[in-house]
Amino acid sequence: MPQSAAPGKVMKRRKAEIIEAAAECFMERGYHATTVDDVAARLGATKGRVYHHYATKTDLFFDVHREGMQRLFNAQEEAKAVEGNARDRLIAMLHAHAVAMLEHHTYETVVAQGVQVHRFDQVTPDQRQTMQELISSRDEFETLFKTVLSDAIAEGSVPPVDVSVAVKVMLGGLQWSIFWYRPKKGETPGQRSELASRMVAPLVAGFGTA
Q1: Neighbours of 72 (CB within 10 A)
Q2: Cα(28)–Cα(110) distance, rounded to whole angstroms?
Q3: Which pTM was predicted?
């Protein structure tokens, strides 16, 4: 059993390495300027290694985007279960999102590039389907925040606001960190958490005290 499982683990690890290298290239150069040769060079391998797993650069970009979104969803698991009222959960979720944006800066920069870079590109039917799935994933992520903000308004811990607009503004404000934040050598998780708190504070200040 272990022997038969080993090849699968190796394959998974190699694919993860390709995704990591691609994320770095897409972040630095953007989707259109990045080539499969760039990704292969970052890996120190031939482009045949990349093509072994991905038929096109677009398919690779989609997997980087998918991984970035999964990391954002993963970051919300504990925050959604925070004890307290809905306002407390909202603040915890915003903080978790801010931390994830900082910790996964490379991937989230690619997510921010978004599937819109392909809206006017020639894509296959399968790729178009994947585009729709990624768009749905982003909508689902927004819904997490819309739900808890609606709950907070219903319980009276947050004043009435346009939920859809408010969530887009809050998430957009945190997402903007991809333009001004750069990971620092030796930066600790505690320092990132403290920065995340400062990012979230002005977003919830308008809600007043609970």
Answers
A1: 21
A2: 9
A3: 0.88
Amino acid at 68: G
Q: What domains, with CATH codes, occur in the chain?
A: 1-54 (1.10.10.60), 56-207 (1.10.357.10)
Q: Return the structure tokens found at 142.
A: 């927004």
Q: What is the pLDDT of residue 1?
A: 44
- Cα distance between residue 78 and residue 189, in whole Å: 16
Alpha helices in 117-161 (DSSP H): 125-155
Q: Helix %, strand %, coil % for the chain, to 5? A: 80, 0, 20
Q: Which residue in 2, 55, 45 sits closest to 20, CA to CA?
A: 45
Question: Residues 100, 108: contact at Cβ < 8 Å?
Answer: yes
If phi > 0 it is left, if psi is from -120 to 50 it is alpha, else beta; for residue 187 that is: beta
CB distance 107 to 184 below 8 Å: no
Q: Mean pLDDT, 10 residues at a time, over the chain (210 residues)?
A: 62 91 94 93 93 91 94 94 92 97 93 71 77 90 97 95 95 94 92 97 82
